[in-house]
Amino acid sequence: MRWLLTVAIIWGLMAAAAAAQTYSPQRPLPRTTSMPTLRALATQREVEERFKLGIDAEARGDWTSAVAEFNRIVALNPPEPKGSTARYDLAIAYANLGRYDDAATELRAALALDPAFLAAMANLVSVDIARGDLAQARQVADRYVAVDPDSARALYSRGIVALRSGDAATAREDFGKLLRNNPSYAVAYYDLALAEERLGRYESAERQLRAALSLAPAYARARFALGVVLLREGEHGAARNEFQRASVDAAGDPALQNIAAAARDSIPAP
Amino acid sequence: MSRTLFRPVLVAALLALLMICGRFAVAGAASLEDALTGALVPSAAPSLLGPITSAGRVGWECKPERSAGSAGWHEAELPPHSGSP
């Protein structure tokens, strides 16, 4: 009986302690009565809350709500790094709504606030490519490579912009450097081969394409490019074989499949 | 038609046919060459890096900023090997 009473008393004391436990508030209570300070604290809190809501909206693909949240943060003009970050996040929402011009404007504003913001540079190159503005894309890509010369994304992005705008020499340099750090990246071999092909260096192009295909044998676009390069080298039989295989490997890409089949059929069988 | 007139007409017709065939052959070859060159397209532009919280890009493990500066293609979130450009 005495033992039972002791247990009951200990249990009662523990329950009382748990009930009396206090929790510290999530945010410190304002220790001021000054109106400007209170207003600034309220703004700060609104910015934090809207960041959470905006990022949650982006996570569930609700880009319209995300635009509303980040636009409000931008209007509140928070100090750095929140100002550039809100513009960066707003640009992501705009880009996903297909509003590439607005996305580019916000990313440029983010870079004006934070000139070394690499993620903003990275996204701005992709957005400018989507807008079809290769001159602007190249400007940002040059700046990106200058700020971080070893960044794989900077080299890849500038290489793609250079290839699309006919600057095969820069593309060759960038993909070559990218491959020095990433010798198992098949896509970079493919793009380097394209640069070599455009420079009329067919042997080197063939070598790069064979390297890409040794890493990714079902890489249909590389297989097709190899056929084109072999054709330019006068290797008609070998080219025909590559086009044949490309037409099989390109099952998920009907346009490539058709052109590979047409190229194969244009070469008489031996 | 007299025999003297028939011969030059036949020769002219054959020449015309030859020229038309040759023209089609050249046009066909040129269009194939154009199609092949047009099909050698560069890979896709990289997809967008993800959002950043209110903490900003500096002073913590900010994934998009780290990806943007990474020297490795995988961490940089570049298009994968087998991805169709």
SSE ordering of chain A: HHHHHHHHHHHHHH
As a whole number of angstroms, the C-alpha radius of gyration of chain B is 31 Å
Question: In percent terms, what proportion of residues of chain A is strand?
Answer: under 5%
Percent strand of chain B equals: under 5%
Show unreliable segments of chain B: none
Please report the first level of CATH classification, the CATH class of the domain at 183-270 in chain A.
Answer: Mainly Alpha
Q: What is the topological layout?
A:
The complex is a heterodimer of chains A (270) and B (85).
Chain A: H1 2-19, H2 35-59, H3 63-76, H4 82-96, H5 100-113, H6 118-131, H7 134-147, H8 152-164, H9 168-181, H10 186-198, H11 202-215, H12 220-232, H13 236-249, H14 254-266
Helix pairs in contact in A: 2-3, 2-4, 3-4, 4-5, 5-6, 6-7, 6-8, 7-8, 8-9, 8-10, 9-10, 10-11, 10-12, 11-12, 12-13, 13-14
Chain B: H1 3-39, H2 63-69
Please give a structural write-up.
- The complex is a heterodimer of chains A (270) and B (85).
- With 270 residues, chain A is mainly α.
- Chain A has a domain at 183-270: Tetratricopeptide repeat domain (Serine Threonine Protein Phosphatase 5, Tetratricopeptide repeat).
- Chain A contains 14 helices and no strands.
- The model of chain A has no long low-confidence stretch (mean pLDDT 92).
- With 85 residues, chain B is mainly alpha-helical.
- The radius of gyration of chain B is 31 Å and the shape is rod-shaped.
- Chains A and B meet through α2, α4, α6, α8 and α9 of A and α1 and α2 of B.
